[in-house]
Amino acid sequence: MEKAEVLKNIIETRRSIFPKSYSTEEIDEEVLAEILNSATFAPSHKRTKPWRLKVFRGEEKNQLGAKLAEIYKQTANSETFLEKKYLDISDKVSMSNAIVTICVNFSGLVPEWEEIAATAMSVQNMYLTATANEVGCYWSTPGMINHLNNFLGLEENQKCIGLFYLGKV
């Protein structure tokens, strides 16, 4: 199969696959490294490479899940708080083999939308590489990400714009 056909097939078969569909099988370190490395090939104006990606696995992933659940509990008012949603946060994290936090570093050299667009392109590269390696994934943007700055050690010019869940299917 020629390269163009392979690429077309990967693009057309890329889907968001959610943690409930992940198996318990571990993603090989080499495959995870390849998925993350593909993000670095996204274009960025003035080569700012604004994406800041942090992988959470094992105990760190559990701590992230606990933090997300805690944020939900603290920020939901009593009328909108749902025990099921609270429990689902931890379940979704535990069913994932890895979670990557997607953050943007705003350089001040280019408009912010360009930094966000470049970061989104880096995530698309991860999506396509995960698809090629038969790894399920999806990008989630729960409101809790707006409260992760301290937990993630983000600087004033940085912002978390999502969580990238990964798991074998």
TrEMBL record:
Cofactor(s), names only, from the UniProt record: FMN
Positions of the Nitroreductase domain: 11-168
InterPro entries: NAD(P)H_nitroreductase, Nitroreductase, Nitroreductase-like, YdjA-like
One family name in Pfam for this protein: Nitroreductase
Taxonomic superkingdom: Bacteria
Keyword entries, A-Z: Flavoprotein, FMN, NAD, NADP, Oxidoreductase
UniProt GO molecular function: oxidoreductase activity
Family (UniProt): Belongs to the nitroreductase family.
Protein name: Nitroreductase
Organism of provenance: Kaistella flava (ex Peng et al. 2021)
